[in-house]
Amino acid sequence: MSEVESRAPKRLLITGGAGFIGGNFVHHWVAAHPNDRVVVLDALTYAGNRATIASLIDTQQIEFVHGDIADASLVSSLLASHAIDTVVHFAAESHVDRSIADPAAFIRTNVVGTLTLLSACRQAWQQQGVWREGVRFHHVSTDEVYGTLGPDDAAFTERTPYAPNSPYAASKAGSDHLVRAWIHTYGMPATISNCSNNYGPFHFPEKLIPLMIVNALHGKPLPVYGDGLQVRDWLFVEDHCRAIALMLESALAGETYNVGGRAEHVNIEIVKWVCQLLDTRFAADADLAQRFPDCPAAMGSSCASLITHVTDRPGHDRRYAIDPTKIATTLRFEPTESLPSGLARTVDWYLANEAWWRGVMDGSYRQWMQDQYQMT
Ligand code: NAD
Ligand code: DAU
């Protein structure tokens, strides 16, 4: 049997399309498929930002619906009124630290919200046990469902047993299991991807890389959890978007894929790289010192002077690593952005898009940062 199939989605519902990866995916998809119908459903939580996709909304290249994936009647009416044939499901509560502080929101959106979407799609797409031709549900998930690895353990494959450690990971594992059950029990034409850490434009500045950039520009401490020797596998967000597009276009229904960047690094190394990039940019452009006078680089010092080791995250997973063999061999997916070039693009994007990140740093963001790091 062939390991791939060819299909052409035309009418997409993208959940969480005002968030980091969802927003990048919306831009990616519309650029590649300008004639497709794209509807974005997003609740605009603290992590969602209309500005991320405003250029596409304002030019009517996409339709934006402000709403909740757990609202069954809204989801059903969108599936029907837009004759949706493809759902790409990004919407989630996504930050591990917040899941430790408030797990209930993660169960509601990640588990109950996913259940609501699956039930609505089944109702819209299945009649008398037969699924409508050409429909597809893609569930965007995480490598965190597999738990943590020791330094010499083999990387996660699609057959690695689930062992989620944080409330976030447990909620994503729950959502994966629901999708799997809908595939197995009802024959739903769905796929799942479990991806490693993304980075790039439109990343909310509570996550490691954008937080380090924004804090350094303000001359604030760069909080490194514990010894900073935890390992993550980093993937530039546009590469992740390409992988999802490939899965939508070519993956067989029912399949699961691990997606990674072949770029394992310890956190402290990533933070030092970001600091070096900022130091270099300030040395080359005198305007930056005017714009960000509190940054150490504005005073000829290194941003690395701000690195501060803080109390470790409770239950912190030590290492994640993805074995990308399946997606590489069956769908011919390889990341195209190297970590050095992707990090440089990311730092440059934040320097060029100050209005975007200032716009997302509202009162609730400031309160969270203050509670999290006792920073003002
Ligand atoms: P994000 O937090 O930046 O964005 C999430 C989006 O979902 C936001 O726009 C938010 O407003 C929206 N949302 C939240 N609750 C909602 C609800 N109830 N109804 C409708 N919309 C809602 O997250 P992200 O980093 O872009 O992650 C997107 C998906 O990818 C998530 O499912 C996450 O688990 C997964 N993932 C993320 C990474 C990563 O490194 N960021 C890696 C692998 C997988
Ligand atoms: O692995 C995929 C996952 O990657 C996604 O499923 C999550 O949605 C996404 O948030 C991300 O989870 P992490 O917990 O790995 O990402 P985060 O940016 O929060 O942290 C990355 C590493 O950096 C982690 O080891 C914790 C550490 N860290 C994080 C922050 C925010 C710090 O040392 N200091 C910090 O201030």
Q: If you had to describe this structure to a student in words, what would you say it looks like?
A:
The protein has 376 residues and is an alpha/beta fold. It has a domain at 11-201 and 235-262 and 316-336: Rossmann fold, CATH 3.40.50. The protein is built from 14 helices and 14 strands. The strands form four sheets. It has a seven-stranded parallel β-sheet with strand order 3-2-1-4-7-8-12, with helices on both faces. Strands 9-11-13 form a three-stranded mixed β-sheet. Strand 1 (11-15), helix 1 (20-32) and strand 2 (37-42) form a beta-alpha-beta unit. Helix 3 (72-81) packs parallel to helix 5 (103-125). It is globular and about 70 Å long. 45% of the residues are buried. The mean pLDDT is 96. Bound molecules: nicotinamide-adenine-dinucleotide and 2'deoxy-thymidine-5'-diphospho-alpha-D-glucose. The site of 2'deoxy-thymidine-5'-diphospho-alpha-D-glucose (DAU) has 19 residues, from helix 7 and strand 10.
